[in-house]
User: Fold these one by one.
Assistant:
Number 1:
Amino acid sequence: MLSLIVSFVSCAEDQGPQPLESNSNAPAEVTNVVIENLPGKAKLTYTLPSDEDLLYVVARYTLENGTPMEVKASYYSNSMLLEGFTGQSTNEVKVYAVNRSEAESKPVSVTVAPLKAPIFDIYDSLIAQPDFGGIRITADNPTKEEIGILVMQKNIQGDWVPLRTSIYTSVDEVKQSLRGFEPVEQEFAIVVRDKWLNYTDTLVTNIEPLFEQLMPKSGFVGVKLPNDATTINNAYPISNLWDGQFLEYWGSYFTDRTIDVGNHLVTFD
């Protein structure tokens, strides 16, 4: 009974990880804050206080979509990058110096005015056009932002729903086709989203996919060319590549990866 009581008291007093130091005196504030407004971002450069137990600087702000943000920078650095803005408004940022006891300084309030976020230029470059069995999406993403290009169609309730094959990428030139559609005119809605859940306007367009028919695989024949990759001993036939079997070991086709042939090629007609 005594051991149970001791265990209970011990658990009640456990408050989780605590700072290794105990200094209730708040550090001085950062000074000389300089703002560089960037597309969808803002860079802050500042002078650190001289407190010997300074640990980091933290900035807190709220995005236009209501998301609270917190960015920390080590005391080894005198700058930080604030991200996630749409660039459609000014935003208040509060900057705090924090010591090793997690005591925070008084806030230094600054106002940032980021430039237009990259998703809007990506949206302006967006082109949707017919492709075989679907639609083809192209767009320019020169700064290689992490984006989603959500391609939507209406469900039976009449609500726009993103397709499972929507595009998620960070390449500089988006060139991707969405397949599996009947060759009849259909309505699509397309929107660009960034990883902070900022959205552009929606492009609504009617597109008729081009007719596409699957070639009969029964006529495929393997062809051996001099620059084809070497197969491993007792390799299964190349016809395993198109026989419709995906999950079984004997439905595979193996080439020798130890042979350096440049492009790793196999050929069939």
Number 2:
Amino acid sequence: MSYDRYLKELEEEFSVIRDRVWGVSNGFSNGFYLHGPPGISKTFTVVNFLVDKSIPHEHVQGQLTGSALFDVIEENPDGVIVLDDVSAILGDPKAVQILLAALGSPPDGSRIRKVPYRTARGTRVVDFTGGVILITNLTLDEHHNGVIAALKSRVDVQEFDPTPEQVEALIFKIAMEGPAGVAAEEAVTVAEFLVLECRRRGTRLTVRLFVDHALRDYRMWKAGGLENDWTVLVRATVAKEFVPQRRAVRGMPTGDQVATDRRSVPAIRRGFPTLEQRRRVWQEQKEAARGGSATDH
């Protein structure tokens, strides 16, 4: 199966994300709000671009209170602040007010935004000239906060929700580069099995599931000492982290489907010991390819 078309589509989306990040880091925009499903390289794309371009930044993950957010801004008054998983922040009225101040446009046309934080002991103010990048799984409208509309007008907003075909293409691209200390041929084998298992279960395939889980399970198995084969661990991980497909897999061109079938056979043999199991999985995969078992959610 040729993934060139899907990789080209993905690269176009990645390039827009990089341009938005560049705009924030060079003062053309005060903020960028990037949202989409988890595990699809949103954070990696943003942070990797900043690192590659040697752009000073502060990457903050997890929950932040209003006071903690102000501390981050105070410590990085002219840098790029990347706030990862901002759901909790946007649910805190104080944090939202701080963000609004940091993302505002001064009436005098300058880059200096006064960001205040008031406490019982007085008011602290930061002259902020940097930018803020917010990464989350939710759209702005899903935060159910009355002041979110004001935030929306102050940032560039982009959704990143690649198709199942695009995610699969990206995973095989990563595999062929030999990631995380795993030889390319072995990583492709892991990718083949993971894709097959996700199709069989109707589970949404993600880059995180491949890099952080399936490859990890394979490395554990290669290290020796495990009671189970790596395929058992991957199958258990997929079952535990089940997330249904957000949309159906599009029908593949005939040539692509034939190539996929050929690649699936070794993975089915490795992962399913009996002939009956192999026939059942093969049939499930054929139905999924025709759109018979993948549904919109």
Number 3:
Amino acid sequence: MKRILSNITFIMLFVQVISAQSFIKSIGKNINYQIECSCFDNDGNLTIGYFNLKDTLRDSMVFSKWNLSSKTWSYINAIPVKNTKKNYSKCIYKNDSLLVFTKLKRIGTLASGLIYINTTGYKSLGDFRFEKGDGFVSDLKLYKNKVIIFGNFDSVRLSSNSSKIQHITAYNGVDFEYSKAPTEFANNPISNYPVANNKDTFLLIAGGSMVWQFVYPNKWTLVAKSSKTNFNAVAFNGINWIITRENADSLMFYNGKKIEFKILKQKLFPPLSIVNTSQGLLVSESGKAGRLLIYDNVKNQFTNIFQNYRNDTFTRNIQTYKNKVFYISSTPIIYRNVNFGKIAEMSLPESMPVEYDTISIFVFNDNNNNIKYDAGDKMMQPAVILNKTYGKLISSSSGFFKDIVPDYNDVSYEVKYLQRCLVVPIYLKIQSSKNLGKGIKSDSLFFPVQQNNLAKNIIIKSFAHKQKARLNDTIPLEINLKNNDCQLYKSNGTVTVMLDSNTNFVNSIPPYSSKEKNILKYDFTYQSEVNQYKIKLNVVYSIGKYKIDDIVKHFVKLETDITDDSTDNYDSIVQKIVYSFDPNEKNCEPSGAVSGEVKNIRYFIEFQNEGNDEARRVTVIDTLDVHIPVYEFQMVSCSHNYEVSLNNNVVTWVFDNINLPPKSLTESGSKGFIVFEAHLNKNLETNDSVINKAYIYFDYNTPIITNTTSVIKKTEVVQPPDVDGKLSIRVYPNPADEIVSFENVSIKNQNVSVFNMLGQQISDFDIKASSIINKSIVDWPRGMYFIKSTNGGFQKFLVH
């Protein structure tokens, strides 16, 4: 069964209880999320990281916090993260700071890293590497205000250096401390299981076959080693360490010196999540069984308190903070026929064993189409049904099924994978057992399978592999024919593909039978369903013929030599053109006419992706003026990791794998900048000028040319006058960093408007005669700004 990614909901969870009082508390409204990590702040408020797949932040991990007092979720921030099944995200609070380990997507060239997150932004603290690929972190623990990091990595790279650190390190808020581990441990990296701890002592699994005790900072003890059965979970119950093994019938209790085995009455099915609660050891199975169990230390047995079983391995884990217990699942939690989602706060009762019902299911050939199981009817052999409530596929060679399910839910079933032209009548296609009645412990369901004699019909379906298409990429298109009648009539026909007139056809399999401009015809002979007919085409949408957000439509038509249902003989392919785009801007300081000495010119190049898809590569080329004796080029700052080269007077910056997101996804994340200085070996003479502009390439699109900057040496600089012949508004300092002052030197009240380089008004205010107004510009983007006063005069100033 495929993993469900988009149906996660914050919920109330109700499970069978002895009394009428619920042991589950609501944690907010129903919101569908794919939860990746969870942790508690110092006040016990649960924080989660998740992918909101229906939002514009679908390529970002969003962090929100559940406030126990207000009973509401609050948004923290979002960071660009790779949405993969092996993300291995973890989070922890250090004081009031949220730290997250995850696979980054768009922060320079980082892969797996530790991130600091708050409501205003995020910052990379270190890049974790492994010689065979990206490293992962299995757990984060806090001890003496240090974050102890366990995982599979062999180096940690900061922005300025790289340190050789294997599998365990401590982050002290500034740097990563090295903790030397035994060779046997270093050669068997940490398994991706949670780590248990009691103050400075940690228990962890390495290589699946070893359990180590680590006392911070450097004391190591090998607790257990097995060559036959892998260890899969560790926990601390306040007295002993608990260790479990795959498919074992015993628990291992370790008191710090020796191990005691306790034989269980039933096996646990890994992977496991184990925590200690006030009611005892709580275990969640992430395997097919999907049970939630409480361990009774006196009786040495587990009580099954909830079950959410599936056909595949899904993530189910438990988070605890003091007396708070949260159950988190990657599959829906269903109780009393209500799908509550995938996270719940639980208050555990002393005893609440799950009881089960038996559902008998008959799938039979209904030969006389009377929807009854008659004496002459035979069972469908073999058959497959889907338990829709739990997403569980069940197979039977005889057509008879017996499904044992928890008694607190009605369960729905559907017959799957029937042979061609066999159907279950639509009103019996999905049937449900009724399990809620007292004393009802069994139920029977009957599915009649009948012959469906469809009319002659061939269906055409066309599609693009992606709804969005990038300019200049080779775009695959596909057309499929399906014989939808039960007799499988042999037929001849023609498929006509009418490509958009501006589209460049590259090739197709099979080759077209004829072609006139962008109209292609494919002749075929259709013999059976097995011999399905497919057409695969490759096309290109070229720059110059298409632009951003263009909608491209292609049409497909089917003609056959049989009389069939023609309502499905037409189809179309619709794609939206995407590419990266840059509004670009270049400024310099000093700028314009200058009268003083000029030895250095500082240049600012800014770019932003205003397209509708990420830019994978950005190249910036700047040609320094050959007429000016530049003797040194020096980088000042840059927004992303880059490679720079200087060849004669041409400077080239290359941002490979920058993966710059579009502005529509994130305003701040879509921007980049370069700051550099050109040092002159002699001063400019009167009327000398330095003219400069940059060329910015997003991916392999045509270059975007920035505005032209100029520095001109004059003996006397004349400021632009107002209409009354004098400059009535003074602006200083220029350039400005945090505060800019606007001074009205005239004897009249004036209105002042400030515009950015795009002509957008960003500020408007009044200044009384002979007065000064100070404006904070800390939130203004770097660049050039223009000022218009009431008298009609224009000025400009630069924000660093």
Number 4:
Amino acid sequence: MTARSALRTGRGPARLAFAGAWAAVLTVALAAITGCQAMHPLDGVPAERLADSFRTPVRTPRRPIDPSLLGQPRPSVYRLDTGDVLGVFAPALYGDGGLGSPPVVVAETTLNLIPGQGFPHQVGRDGAVHLPFLGPVLVRGLTLEEARGRIVDLIRTQFEIDRSKEDPIVLLSVLKERTISVVVFRNETGPDGAVDNNVAGQGGERFDSPTGEVVELPAYQNDVLHALAATGGTPSLEGDVCVTVARAGGLRLTGCGPGGCQPAGNFGGAADEMAFGPIGGHSVGPALAPTLAGAPTVDGPQVVKIPMQLLPGQPPGFCHSDVILKDGDAVYVDSRTKDVFYTGGLLGPGSFRLPRDEDIDVLEALAVVQGQRQSVGTTRALTGNSVLSRDVTAGASSLIILRERPDGTRLRIEVDLRDAVVDPRQRILIRPQDYLILQYRKGEAFVAGFERFFIEGIVQGVSTGIFFNN
């Protein structure tokens, strides 16, 4: 190899590196001139100027409610009501029928029967059992002994049995206790705690496992506590903070007759001339829109909301009758849908769940976001870097928090991450639905662009020159 060729070979990588450097400089300059978004950061209200309420914890003191408040005490005696199945035997009413003793009813697991004797009679909706010769006998609210005494008195009156004689034989037992049918819907978090944080680039996806079940609750167990216990237990503490109970019959559509909604026009007209009612309901013909006697949402008066967490000293906000369930009631347990915050800008798009029992500030929120991003292998080139990493590379120090106001507008809060490390006024607490945008300041954006395009351009130019000259 000649000296001239060696010189040419040595100068090749340098030339490529020099050209790459100039290209990087021109790229940075062009980005600044043409309006790169990094050169136009968002601004907001400085965090240190905000009231102390922005730093006041609201979640930390909450504690789980005493589960006994969701149930009811079992009374010392069982009182009869609609749905109970009684075993009744009285020779005065049935005769012996060739039997020396009353029929024996053996318990069957599928029927949930209790061992007893007598002919089965169910307590009807009127609270009475209908017996031969006696007709309806009102037993609602009576104990078993009280009901037996009433039947004995009615037999004496019906057959004119003198009071001086012994009581007629009456055997009375409960063959099957009544049950209350309720529907329980649960749309709760999965086993990983509501958010799947292993989705690269997303930062967390909801993981719900909706279920629905019709539950038969025994008498004196017809309450929210037993309904939850029968369908998986009390709500996950990572789930919703309240249980909703919709009362059966609390809301009814009106304006429809036995034959359906009455038509509001002639069926002979053209289709576009027909005024059809709302979606759903009857499928043919124009109809008058049914009306409701109340709000058709979970905010209506027919709905009871029972919180699962309370602040110290906070009253529960419901009474004993609210947890008692009646036939046809619906219980709904839902996952929290608003207890997340969102990210954008250099943090990348994503949603992250807020802790249940504690508040987190901006520094802790960034630690959660960047920690989860690193665990799924998201690189700095995709998400950017903050000054908190204390890296040798350029980092962003401006964090914008978009917070929704009651009127629907958004308040922009600007946090200086450099000051937040030492100034507690910068450490704003994160609220549900907050949107966190990490961005460069103008100087930081220039340095980051220089670092990315100039230095990396030189390295790529040199490596490319070496590759082609080999």
